[in-house]
């Protein structure tokens, strides 16, 4: 089932709002934007429309039609919506909506539907920097121990965990793999990254063995004719990224490991790479990053640990 259904997303909006969002989605599809990005962008705009219709005491009486027409939205409307998002959700969620709305009103400018974006002077919400803990080897071992066995789910889950652990890939990149994306001859995987940025990444012998064992079991499993790499336990269906997310949480509960999600292995990969003295440029290539801000963000949770290790080695303050 597709993540994005524009008609469902805009069902309760005014005809004008719904029409603009359908047209914008067409432009995004023509630009080959990933479905997840399109969904997040359209959801932000649809939520603004619903807020204006249901919650907003209009801060600008001269733009009282904003709930009916996005071209009437003002800076005051956006700021009120953003403050509401912070109060009812979080600053991080508000920041995501801010970025989506920036793109929507930029599109309206290109379409010459507005003369100036209401986002021009709206500040991005400040978000507290949360340090995401890395997934330590002992925790990964507990999860792999929970996957020991010869049943189809055991073999599949071990292969999934080892790919995250070994390559630092995003949840969706592993979740959306096709059979043809895995090459056991070169022990490499072809990831389809954000923004249609593909890359090929090598994996090690233990991961190769886990994938080989899974593929042998997959060949006898219902749904083996599907192009998708990961299959559900039953029903001959693909196991999508969201299903993997749920599965990882359940494995964490079974293994006694808290807060299990794919991005913790991504942080771990960046941490271990930097700890070993790896080059930042090479790390960016392997993890599919184009901005140098990303290595800093992903390294933040482990930077203090590395600094403490050096502090102990130097013995500052222990000389007398």
Structural descriptors:
320 residues; mainly alpha; hpI Integrase, Chain A; 2 domains; three-stranded antiparallel sheet; 3 strands; 56% helix
Characterize the structure shown.
There is one protein chain. With 320 residues, the protein is mainly alpha-helical. It folds into two domains: 6-110, no CATH class; 137-310, Intergrase catalytic core (hpI Integrase, Chain A, Orthogonal Bundle), CATH 1.10.443. Helices cover 56% and strands 4% of the residues. The protein has helices at 6-9, 15-30, 35-54, 75-88, 91-110, 137-146, 152-167, 171-175, 205-218, 241-255, 262-275, 280-287, 293-314; strands at residues 182-183, 188-192, 198-202. The chain has a three-stranded antiparallel sheet with strand order 1-2-3, with no helix packed on it. Strand 2 (188-192) and strand 3 form a beta hairpin. Helix 6 (137-146) crosses helix 10 (241-255). The longest helix has 22 residues, at 293-314. It is globular, with a radius of gyration of 23 Å. The mean pLDDT is 88.
Name the helix and strand elements from N-terminus to C-terminus, one letter apiece. HHHHHHHHEEEHHHHH
Radius of gyration: 23 Å
**Backbone shape:** globular
Q: What's the CATH C level of the largest domain?
A: Mainly Alpha
Unreliable stretches (pLDDT < 50, length at least 5) are none
User: What percent of residues are in strands?
Assistant: under 5%
Helical percentage: 55-70%
Counting structural domains, the number is 2
Report the mean per-residue pLDDT as an integer.
Answer: 88
Please state how the strands of the largest beta sheet are arranged side by side: 1-2-3
The name of the CATH superfamily of the largest domain reads Intergrase catalytic core
CATH fold annotation of the largest domain? hpI Integrase, Chain A
Question: How many alpha or pi helices?
Answer: 13
Head-to-tail CA distance between termini: 68 Å
Report the count of strand segments: 3
Largest sheet: 3 strands, antiparallel
* CATH architecture name of the largest domain: Orthogonal Bundle
Structural class: mainly alpha
């Amino acid at each position: 089932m597709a993540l994005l259904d524009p008609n469902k997303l805009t069902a309760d909006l005014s005809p004008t709002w719904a029409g603009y969002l359908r047209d914008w989605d067409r432009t995004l599809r023509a630009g080959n934007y990933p479905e997840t990005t399109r969904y997040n962008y359209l959801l932000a705009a649809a939520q603004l429309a619903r807020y204006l219709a249901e919650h907003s005491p209009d801060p600008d009486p001269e733009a009282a039609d904003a709930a009916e027409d996005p071209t009437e939205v003002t800076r005051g409307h956006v700021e009120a919506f953003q403050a509401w998002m912070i109060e009812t959700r979080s600053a991080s969620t508000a920041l995501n909506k801010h970025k989506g709305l920036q793109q929507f009103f930029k599109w309206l400018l290109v379409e010459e539907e507005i003369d100036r974006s209401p986002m021009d002077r709206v500040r991005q919400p400040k978000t507290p920097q949360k340090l995401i803990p890395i997934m330590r080897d002992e925790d990964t071992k507990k999860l792999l121990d929970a996957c020991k066995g010869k049943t189809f789910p055991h073999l599949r889950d071990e292969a999934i965990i080892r790919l995250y652990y070994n390559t630092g890939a995003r949840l969706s990149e592993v979740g959306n793999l096709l059979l043809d994306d895995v090459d056991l001859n070169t022990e490499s995987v072809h990831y389809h990254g954000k923004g249609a940025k593909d890359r090929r990444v090598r994996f090690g012998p233990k991961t190769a063995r886990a994938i080989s064992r899974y593929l042998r079991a997959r060949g006898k499993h219902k749904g083996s004719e599907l192009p998708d790499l990961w299959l559900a336990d039953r029903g001959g269906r693909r196991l999508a990224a969201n299903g993997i997310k749920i599965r990882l949480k359940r494995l964490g509960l079974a293994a006694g490991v808290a807060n299990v999600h794919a991005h913790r292995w991504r942080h771990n990969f960046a941490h271990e790479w930097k700890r070993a003295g790896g080059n930042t440029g090479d790390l960016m290539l392997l993890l599919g990053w184009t901005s140098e801000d990303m290595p800093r963000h992903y390294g933040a949770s482990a930077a203090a640990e590395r600094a403490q290790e050096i502090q102990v080695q130097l013995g500052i303050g222990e000389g007398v």
